Amino acid sequence: MKPATLWLLAAPHVQASRTRAALVAAGTAAAGGLVLVTVALFRVPAFALPPRGSTERYSVTYDPGYASIVTSAETRIGVATAVLLVAATALVLAWQAVSSGSARRQRRDHALSTAGATPGDLRRLGAVEAAVAGTIGGLLAGPVYLLLWFLLGPVQPATSRLLPSLAPADLTAWACVVAGSAALAAAAGARAATRRHRRPLSGWWWLALSVVALAGMVVLPQLGQGDRQLQVVLMSVAVSLLLMVALAGGASWARAKARRMSRRGGTTDLLAAGGLRALAGPAGRAAGVLLGVGLTVGVATVMLGNTLRQTTDLGSDGHLTGIVLAAVAAGLAALAGLATIALAALDDLLTNRRGLAAMAAVGADLALVQALQRRRLRAATIAPLVTGLLVGGLGFGALTAGGEPASRSDAWPLVVVAPAAVALLLLASAGIVRLLSGRTREAIDPANLRVA
Amino acid sequence: MSTVELSGVSHAYGRTQALSDVSMTVEPGEVVAVTGPSGCGKSTLLMLAAGVLRAQSGRITVAGTDLAGADDASRARFRRREVGLVLQFGQLVPDLSVRDNVALPLLLGGHRPVEARAAADGWLERVGLDVEPDTLPADLSGGQAQLAAGARALVAGPRLLLADEPTASLDATSGRALLDLLVTTTVQAGGSVVLVSHDNAVAARADREIRLRRGTVAHQVALS
Amino acid sequence: MSLTELHLALLAGAPRHGYDIKQEHDSWFPDTRPLPYGQVYATLARLQRDGLAEVVETRVDGGPERTVYALTADGAARLRAWLAEPAAPTGAGAEEIVRKTVSVLHTGIDVGGFVARQRAAHLRRIRELQATPPGAGPAERLVREHLIAHLDADLRWLELATELLPSPDDQPTVRPDERKPA
After folding, report:
1. For chain B, which residues make up each domain, given as ranges?
2. How far apart, in whole angstroms, are the C-alpha atoms of residue A181 and residue A192?
């Protein structure tokens, strides 16, 4: 295929592919902006904390210009991890937009392949399409960073800024982000256009990997005993490892969940199980994201409990900012995770019209189809969120409690936070189903049965 | 009381008039064949009688339910309760296994999954579909999907069985076997059957033929 | 054989003489044996004797003298009665259904009704044949299937006849002027 032909085919001709390209660009722009924020964070002058038990705990980290959480080397890494977590979720959303084959694109690829396009041609086409959107996203990352810098820098009171003033290094970083996002998007586009018939890893493999990741979470921080900075680094590595396993293993988990629902559940479970199996990939990614969200919120909750117990401490102000930031980051990640599965559900509505219309013809009405959609969304998200909350909250509580018996009770806000998070998730899933209701109504229209 | 009663029914897709001023009845226990060349409106007629489509004008009463006045939800409930539908090409739900597809009318009707699946297995055997019940529709041949669609139509014991080209993807022998099963099961239970087909062997199975031509009734003749 | 009625159909549109009738017949049924003159004249004489046709004119256009025949009221009634009966639904000897259908389309006498009756007759026969008596051997079933296949072929051919019709609403019973010139 000649480059000119690639360009011709890759240009977004229809509204659906423009929306897709916009989502890819938006996801990369958000992720790129957050990466720039992370890079800038490390330009803030930082100080290492004195060893535990020192009487001068907070005095060294005091700096008139910046909030304490970014000037302390140990918490800064935590903040960076949280920011990168949100960036990763934005990338998951962009990947979903790249990989979800809207019905029209699948038909186009099929037609091209029938007309003689080789799998390599299709891969190149997918790469070019995604790379264009990725480059736009990378360019937009600059403005996104400027906005975030403005909000976290100048807007903040002079004593609690999170980001340093702009520097030439930002430009260099931006150029790297543009190149990186273009390359990443091209790779993602090529991969999405490759038909793979991989056998998914068995449940036992995933169990083993999860055990390794969990063990890593417990063991790695122990290795750094004494050196708190190293401990935090190792902790971040362990958390990232767990998240990668969760994101990659999500699909297998979703399939297993669908099997269980189909075998043991009631009628709604049984009927929703089919849809969950069909959307195992995106549902698994959403599950992975929500596990991460649960972990973050769990840890933040225990930190909140800890802070509330020590309200007299000088550093509580800085910690509160950190907790709020973590909660906001978790909320954004949760939204992106839900958007991932909503995007997949929308794609499913567009591709699976005849199936839904057939279901409606047998006697399912709109209300029932929507109940199935809600069930599917909740099946994929609630269990991971609760698991994350409990593991994050209780695990972090147990780890930090260490020798201080008083902090054992720091997990108490979980009693309030966990039900609230679940309630928010229930509301969000109902909202998504409501947003999709127009498309759902179109999909169950019996006119779809007439198309052979 | 007739099982199906259409009077002065018209329906159009956009500017294409599919049916104009059609009137017909189907009596309890009767088998009616609706025949005609492609595009004559026979599938539209079937969808209207099933309550899947809503007539743009005219009156449709099926099993005592006035379909023209019913909203989407109550027409869906009506289909679960009264109608067995065999559509062209099978039209199974791709996300559900063959067994769950067959069990669907019972599941929607509020039966327990265990019972519904047991009933589905029984009907899969009776239609002669010899596949693993957990198979997904994508792995079935056209003929197998049609057998499954037949089982799905019969599983809830409908008062009205509506079939659109029910044997199109089957060979002559298995097609006739499925048709016999659809007709005898329904009629013995006192139900009525409407067969839409352009296959004369299917039409000959009916007690009466209603022939459509360009959206109107060309003729009606008794065959029994 | 229904040659008598076929001659009535050939006369239905307009009065004709023997040569015209032969030409018309041969154009209606291009695939059958041409009608011998002797048979045309013999049949016309028989029709006249039975009061089904009458001589309306004797024409001399330069050539030999030609006697022009027309249907009588009795003849028209006999033709309608013939077309009101569908052809027997038999597998072999399908000539009759071809004759009747072609006559119906040419004369335009109650085409819709004819098609309905013919379909009913054939479908009823298929229905009988499908109900294989219990204990019938494979050979007997095979004979039945052969008959069904023939009847099905007839019906499909008849469907073409319906498609040739202009519209179900505007069918005059007789349209003599629509005939093709011989």
Report:
1. 4-222
2. 16
